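User: Inositol 1,4,5-trisphosphate receptor-interacting protein, Furnarius figulus:
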Amino acid sequence: MPVGIFRVCLLVITAIVNHPLFFPKENGTVPENTEEIIQKMKEREETLRLEQLRLEQEIADQEATQKAMEKAALVVEESKEEKVRWDMWTALSMVIFLLIELWRQDFQEGNWQDVGGEEDDIAVLGKAFKGVIFPNKAVLASFYEKRILGTTGDMARMREMVEGFADDLLEALRSVCNRDADMEVEDCMGVGSMYENWRVRKPFVCDLIVPFAPPEPYCFRCQTWCSGDSFPPDEQGYGTIKVCRADEDVTGCICDKTKLGEDMLCLLHSQVNTTRPSSEMEDLLCFKNTQYLDADQVMKWFQIAVTKAWNRISHKYEFDLSFSLLDSPGALKIKFKSGKSIAFNLTPVVQYENSDVYFISHFPRSSLAADVPSSTHWFLTFAVYERRFIHLVSKTLPANACHVSCLQILSFLHGKQCSLTGPSGLTNYHLKTVMLHLLQARPSQDWAPEKLEARLQDMLKFLEKCLHEKKLYHFFIGNGKVPAELGFPIIFQRAEPLNLFRPFVLRRDLYRKTVDTFHEMLRNMSALINEYTVHIPLAHTNGIRKESL
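Assistant: Predicted structure for Inositol 1,4,5-trisphosphate receptor-interacting protein:
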């Protein structure tokens, strides 16, 4: 208790002592410094406010940085998820692409040119086929024997005469050419309808191809549309021929593909090998300022060489020789003193690698290469393999098989119709392609001679179906079922099928004219055949019946 009273007293005494009224003189300056204190307080307040703003700005920057980091992390996470999804879609797309590719190859190998069944044919055929008067077996047999069969002997004699003269002419051509500078000409080969024994319409014309090669040390480097580089659609079926030195590797160095500067030199090739004078390449029949063989230059060279060769041997023959077509390198005509004449084509070609596929510059009497992209583009011909295939298949067919007879009758009917209504987009090559497809698709026994009528109808049905679809594939290109015995180059078997009816897709007027001519031929078929058929008693023919194809 005393201690508590003491503490209270001590507190009171201290308060009294420290009261400002007891010390008036020491504290008299307080009112005088009030403004200075207030000013300092304001400055302090301003400093604190600025510090507060700085801290708030730092906090805002930290928050923005944190948000940016969170956003970046989110983007990275999303990109990872997107990449995973993209990888999944890529893998799925690759699987789908592989499945499509496998299906395409299977389609090319098995069904690349669908010949169709009877139900498909009935669904495709149009009204123009209804009520067509179709000759029966007896009428067709009589027509074939009277109009077509008798021409076989004439063709054999003409082939023998033309081949003998062509060999003599080419031998003379070699003698007048400079072996060190001119092209080297090889022996000729017969191709086409005259050598496949199905040509029916006169005048008979033999087609001979003559391979040639450049002089040493040069060689030809051939490139086709299916060799890997992309070719536009209008160049499908074509290729280019580059003239190179035999020791020149055109694929191993980029100096031949890019323009080096004037102060740059290829270390692999000397300046002599990489730069050749323009006149030297033109002497090698190349297009101006290029190394690519020019078809027009070849045509001029060949015509001049043939003229020189004929002048050397003309004294041995009692006939005249002239060019029947100036826009074809070797369209020749033999004129006898009696007034008769024989026409034949001697066409220069370039061999593709070590095969029997050839680059051909011109197609006489044909629309196959009517729209050549340029004179450096050469069309590929498979005529040698076509002849071999027909010969190979003929060995497996019954005796006197009707495949050639069908083609001859169809060619005759189409030619007669074109002479009445004008030319159409169909050619004899299209008709032969139809026969080749059916030869591969049908069993051997279906080509027995007594089935001539049925097979002729099949060819007409198949041709109409192709016209309806505007699609007729080349027989060899893209065909994986070519017999291995032919030794056909695998690069063309793996190529995309080549549609021979592509011009019908681009030119509607040509397509309409072709279809009208085809339908008109069907309607006139009976009259055209009966015109060349001897009268057959009704008991043998059972009349001429109407059939719907």
